[in-house]
Amino acid sequence: MITQAAPPTRPAAVVPPTPAAPRRRRRPDLFRTLSRVLIMLIVIVQVYPLAWLFLTSLRTEHDFATGDPFALPGALTWDNYARAFETGDLGRNILNSFVVTMGANMLIVLLGMMAAYAIQVLGFRLSKLVRGLFLIGIIVPVQIALVPLFIDYSTVNLLDTYQSMIIPLAGFSLPMSVYLFCSFYEYIPKETYEAASLDGAGPYRIFGLITLPLSLNTVVTVVLVNSIFIWNDFIFANTFVLSEELKTIPLGLQNYIGAMGKVDWTATFAAVCVTITPLLLVFLVLNKAMIQGLESGATKG
Amino acid sequence: MLPNRSRTSVLVFLLPPLLLYGAAVLFPILQSLFLSFFSWNGISDMEFVGLENYLRMFTADDIFWRAFLNALLYLAICLVLQLGGALVVASLLTSLRRGRELIKTLYLLPAVISTVAIAFLFVRIYSLEPVGLLNQLLHWIGLGSLERPWLSDVNTVLAAVSAPEGWRFTGLYMLIIYAALLAVPKELEEAAVLDGASRWTLFTRIRFPYIRPVWITTTIMATTYGLRGFDIPYLMTNGGPGQSSELLTTYMYKTAFTSTDFGYASTISVFIVVECLVAVGLILFLLKRKADA
């Protein structure tokens, strides 16, 4: 695993190439200033739209319709938030997103640990093949499953249920979690298991008493990384859910587009702000763990 | 391998995950393949048509080809923004002494936000009436002649729907590439600097070759994600105006759930899978071979 905990590097260029070339000493500073400016510009492009989204949600409608989009709001108002809650069913959308995210995460964590335990710790003849099967799920686009699952769900009456979202979301996230758990289990020393075996512990007890408690850090990583994907899922929810009561946040937001494409933008942006807040807070609080998860997820994939 | 494991215990641990995975991922793939040989609207009887769907797709469907070309262009824009942008920022970040963690976090923010929110946001950024951020910016820097309704102009709409997807994930790839750059041994770089290597040589001869494995992974990730891009174009323009921002994925979705032509939609999704596999194979082939050269 590549860690980010490398010591703050002293840029190599600080060392002058040769003492005989003092002219070159200035270049690193210029370079550093330029790169700092460039980074700032890029960060602004990356972050400003989000700040703008928030500012717009505090604007009055009149201000929004007539004013300069870059200007700060003339007067701050929370009316948009009130209207956002009146227009849609935000509370219910958030609740649904919670149910789906929790449900899918529970499946992903439990089943991911089990599969990784079987592959990495128990070991069996076809374990390479099973690993390969899981790799397919990382490469293959989710769209392939839409038509078949729609047909299957309608035959077994699963359309328009929480399960119709949870099952495919968990299924497509499982491969990455299996890989993360596998790569973690590689580092649990064999001796731990041997000692436990000598004490008479079978595979189930070892899983429950050793592997599972040791996995907790990886569980956090897996949950964080998958939650982004699940909380924001649009395609499965849009395909398998029709009734208002089950709509998750991404679908709920669509309700803000009125008939004839007329949109109450300030209220819509207020709604967007409300709905992105939970995940954003989690991300800002736990971003170290999340960042590490994304990094290791990619380097293992 | 655990000393006293049993065949049953392997099955106990392996079967539940495989069942879920099979039901949600593996079986639907096979089912799509199966359905692609049928004509079916979901109500009447399924009719076996052999390769007819494939023939229609390759020889008689202009929209399919249009969507295919659009998807490639969409992919190209996403790759440039995501991998190019990520590489630039990651390299710059290594020369920064303070604030790296903050920048990483800020930069990753858009990846946390739902595609629906991003689609809304960019609809506003591109809008002309009332004037959105992009047009206002162009006006200010004296390029007022370029102001336009980006999403309803057939010449710009495809680029306009691709950019948000690229913008969204640049931070993710930056993070991965940055982590890889940090792992480049400092002694190697210092030795090169002592030998008089410029920053550019340092980058092309030492850093880049060193992070090649991670570069391959990120390229594969970005490519497969780019080829399956759907939400943002679907929400922003639904493939329009006309077919000017239609991607294979949006075309497949409409074929399935608007025209309820399940057989033909499956044919298109089989093509999307094959396209992803071919792309991955091609990347591995090209980037691995270059490594051997």
Write the layout of secondary structure elements.
The complex is a heterodimer of chains A (301) and B (293).
Chain A: H1 26-57, H2 61-66, H3 79-87, H4 90-122, H5 127-139, H6 146-155, H7 162-185, H8 190-198, H9 203-214, H10 216-231, H11 235-240, H12 249-254, H13 265-285, H14 287-300
Helix pairs in contact in A: 1-13, 3-13, 4-7, 4-10, 5-7, 7-10, 10-14
Chain B: H1 7-35, E1 38-39, E2 47-48, H2 52-59, H3 62-94, H4 100-112, H5 115-126, H6 133-140, H7 157-182, H8 186-194, H9 199-210, H10 212-227, H11 231-236, H12 248-257, H13 262-292
Antiparallel strand pairs in B: 1-2
Helix pairs in contact in B: 1-13, 3-7, 3-10, 4-7, 7-10, 8-9, 10-13, 12-13
Structure description:
The complex is a heterodimer of chains A (301) and B (293). Chain A is mostly helical and 301 residues long. Chain A contains 14 helices and no strands. In chain A, helix 4 packs parallel to helix 7 and helix 7 runs antiparallel to helix 10 (216-231). Chain A is globular, with a radius of gyration of 25 Å. Chain A starts with 25 loop residues before the first helix and ends with a helix. Residues 1-25 of chain A have low confidence and may be disordered. Chain B has 13 helices and 2 strands, in the order H-E-E-H-H-H-H-H-H-H-H-H-H-H-H. Chain B has helices at 7-35, 52-59, 62-94, 100-112, 115-126, 133-140, 157-182, 186-194, 199-210, 212-227, 231-236, 248-257, 262-292, and strands spanning 38-39, 47-48. Chain B is an all-alpha fold. Chain B is 73% helix and 1% strand. In chain B, strand 1 and strand 2 form a beta hairpin. Chains A and B meet through helix 1, helix 2, helix 4, helix 5 and helix 6 of A and helix 1, helix 3, helix 4, helix 5 and helix 6 of B.
